[in-house]
Every structure is written in C-alpha cells, then in structure tokens.
Amino acid sequence: MNNLITYFNKYNTLSEEANKAISEICKPVIIKKNQDLQSIGHTCRTIYFIKKGVARIYYYKDEIEITECFAFENAIIARVESLFTGKPSRKAIQMIEDSELIGINSPKLFELYDKFPEIERLFRKIFEAAYVDTVNRVESIQFHSAEERYNALLKESPNVLQRVPLKYIASYLGITQVSLSRIRGIR
Amino acid sequence: MNNLITYFNKYNTLSEEANKAISEICKPVIIKKNQDLQSIGHTCRTIYFIKKGVARIYYYKDEIEITECFAFENAIIARVESLFTGKPSRKAIQMIEDSELIGINSPKLFELYDKFPEIERLFRKIFEAAYVDTVNRVESIQFHSAEERYNALLKESPNVLQRVPLKYIASYLGITQVSLSRIRGIR
DNA sequence: AGCAAAATTTATCATAAGATAAATAATCAG
DNA sequence: CTGATTATTTATCTTATGATAAATTTTGCT
C-alpha cells in the first residue's frame, strides 16, 4: 500500500482514517504477461494502481486491434468511459509484462465519497489530471505527424521501446505497423 | 440562473444554500459575435455557461489557427488544461455569435468546494462527463477518416453548419479547409 | 445597392501513410 | 536446441490529404 499512498499524496494527502478506509476496499492482483486484467464487454468496477508491470487499454475497430494507451509503474489505469457512465466497456486492459497491481473497488470507493469528502477530492484531482492529459493527446494526434508523435512518445517514455512491442505502439500512434517501421527505418 | 440550475440538476441536484452560494459567484456576460471571451496567455479563472450563442476554443500551431472544440447553448465551456493546472493557457475562447453567458469565478468556486461537498461533487461529475467525451474524441480522430468525422459531426450537431463557418469546422476535424470542401463536394 | 473583404470551392501537383505481400529476425514451446 | 510461431522490416503500388493558386460565392460595410 505504501506506493499507493505516496501516489495519493501527490494529489491530496489523506487522513489516517481515510487511508484505512481505502485500504479496506483494495486487493492485490498478480497477473501474468499478456493476460487480460479486464475484458471487453464488462463494466469497469475496479480502478487499478500498477506496482509493477506495464498495462495497455485496447479495443477493436473493424477487426483490427487498437491500443488506446499505456500505463507504467506508479500510475492508475481504468476504462473511464465505463467507470463514469456505468456502461459496459468495449475495451480491455491487458498487462504486457508479469505484473503486480492493487485493485480498488470502484462502487465501494464511490460510497466512501459520501463519508470522506477528502477521498472524493483526491480522485477528483487524479481524474482532472488524467483529463488534461487526454486533452493534450487530442492535440498531439490531430496536429503532429506520425514521426513527431513517435519522437514525442520516446521522449516521454524512453523505456517504452524496451517494454512494449512495436505493434502496440503503432496503433497507439494511430498508424500501421508498417508505417511505424518505415519511420523508424529513416534513422 | 434558471437554465444553469436545470443544467446542474442533470448531474447533481443542489440544496437551496448551495445554489445561492453559487449564484453569488456568477455574473452575466454579454458579448458580440467574433469577440474573444478569454484570450491567449491568461490563466483560466472563469467557467462559462452558455445561455445563448456558440463558442469555440482555439489556439495556434505554426501560425495556423486550430479549433479545439465547439460549445452550444446549455453547455459549459472552459480551458480545462489551464483551469486544472493553474497555468496560463495557450488557447482562447471566442464567441461565434452574439452571445449571453454566465461566468462562474473558478477560484471562488474551488473555495466553495470546502464548505459544500455537494458542489464539489456536481463539478466532479460535470468534468467526468467532459473527460469521457474527450476520450471518445481521441478515438474518433485516431481511427476514422476525415469524411467519417465530418458525417459524425453533422449527426451529433446537425445545426453546426448553419452556425459555424466551415474554416473552423475544418481544423476541428483535423483537416484543411480545402480538404473539407473536397469532402463536402463529393455529394 | 454596390464595393471590398472574407469564405468557400475548384484545380493541379506533391507527399505521407495505407494495403498487400514477401523477406527477415526474434521469441517461445517442447 | 530446434522448429514453429510471431514480430518486424522491406518493397511496391495506391490513395487520401496537404500545399498552393486561382476562381467563385458570400458577407459585411457605408
């Protein structure tokens, strides 16, 4: 739990009782490489904190698998379009390496919001920051070339190449594997 | 204020006192067509509710003006990447028609969060919904053709063509004016 | 109304990325 | 370790969109 509390402190430091209340709705998850942590068609009821490993959210468009995002250690991952709407998700979360996570039960978390406004505030801030990242991602996809996006990704996550297969990176960048290979080949 | 309270009720119904507290930090804004409501370089300190008119957020990339989004009546608009980070915004908000808005002072709003958890919850839910929209927009930009995006926009906002110049729509769709004209010409 | 400015369309040519196929390299299971 | 599978690269050809320029239409001003 320590890593998670450190992560929380970046957004909103919680009281003892609030930390304890959250710890009671958390459970550890160990999962093997390439396994789905959450599968397509199910409604999101768990927010995950990554202690170890790499995650990606993916979905299918016209039979083709698309990677929506990656998440590394000490980050949170959830399919927000399901978490916030209560609708089943068309997306899945897969762990790219053998991983250790902490799962936070989201219906129970939302109940805690009533008793602990500080917890509601914490998650408000966490998701506000994620929202800002997504707004920036729209800009990046819309007005940078594939090559610019590739270079920006490397700068932001220098170890992504070591940990994530190129085929996943390609669809994340919005291009085909073949185009990514071409871009990489230039240098 | 009535429209605004109706809008709030879709997310979280507030007590009398909470509504009153919000009304005290609101002020009406009347603004002419093509005027900037908020300008580039300033930090966002107001969240706007549109009573009448159409707004867009825009910014510059390489001297070229880009429209990030549109907002119509009975919606909220803010440059969230500044609102949530406190940093100056590279973006501006412009009203495309003669408009009437309600401006909500955001620093004062955030103070109200301490006294009224219900207000914090209201805005949490408003921005969660906006976040989900943005996640969906990433998908739309990344994996639909320009023509598909154009048709999707028309379906979503059928009156956008009547109210918004095509040059703004083009950059919103991530294409040039000329390409948009070509797409429209096909039918 | 009538002119000027701005918006939109049309045309032409250039280019980045897609589709497909095939070759090579890396990884994994037994 | 080795063969089989999967991932990546390379090659060729096609296509959607960009860049630029010019023509046309619409809008706004006085």
Automatic annotation (TrEMBL), chains A, B:
InterPro entries named in the record: cNMP-bd_dom, cNMP-bd_dom_sf, RmlC-like_jellyroll
SUPFAM superfamilies, per the entry: cAMP-binding domain-like
Protein name: Crp/Fnr family transcriptional regulator
Source taxonomy: Bacteria, Pseudomonadati, Bacteroidota, Cytophagia, Cytophagales
